[in-house]
Amino acid sequence: MDLSLASGQEDSLLLLLPATSVLPPLLAALLLVVGLLWLSPGGPAWALSLCRRPPPGPPGVVTALSSPVAHRVIAALSRSVQGGAALLSFSVGLTRVVVSSQPDTAREILVNPAFGDRPVKDSARQLLFHRAMGFAPSGDAHWRALRRLGAAHLFGPRGVAASAPQRASIGESMLGDVASLMARDGVVSPRRFLHAASLNHVMAVVFGKRYDDFASQEGAAVEEMVNEGYDLLGMFNWADHLPFLKWLDLQGVRRRCDRLVRKVEEYVGVIIQERRAKRAAWRHC
User: What's the pTM value of the predicted model, to 2 decimals?
Assistant: First the structure.
């Protein structure tokens, strides 16, 4: 009994001695800081910001945006937090996110210049050849002028009037396809026809090429590239919110973007060569 008491006293005295290693105190302090950031309202991204009074929100990192039904998950989350229906804040990695479930608050967000800039996605930067004009800061005069010039060229009165015959032809072709399919099957899925008509109009306006049949080899290749681009731009990528994951490419977004960029460059290169050949032939005539 005496020996056991003596050993117990020695163990208790060892706890009072100063630590000889520097690692445990630093590790404990790091864990404490991470815990405080994680448990703060709105999550770590809002805790690291300069916002003194962030909107109400849950602690931790929310993974709802990676869900196929993200809108439903976020709606349920806003109802579960007091005051979250008007404005809810949460963290997705190191990205601060706010969500509004009320029309008045959403209207204020849409007209507020603080929300004018769109965060640049890694896939957008690659697919738009590292220019990302649609994601450029609103204060950048160069990109703002280019956006205004492109909008005036494509959607100005003269440009809209010039493409009117193309739109009419594409609409008539779509209506004919719908009528024939309705007469044959009695059921029509409008998504396929609207997608083909929209893609055909964009290709006619931008590249001067029209595909009446996307089942052809070239038309199918174009449609595949467009669908792949939409999928990559709309895909939730954790590398956009955790920068240290960007070079790991765990979701394969960079590899898919590289393959798609090579296909687009090859396709556009062929169109450029065709245009140059036509211009040279026209000059010789």
Answer: 0.72
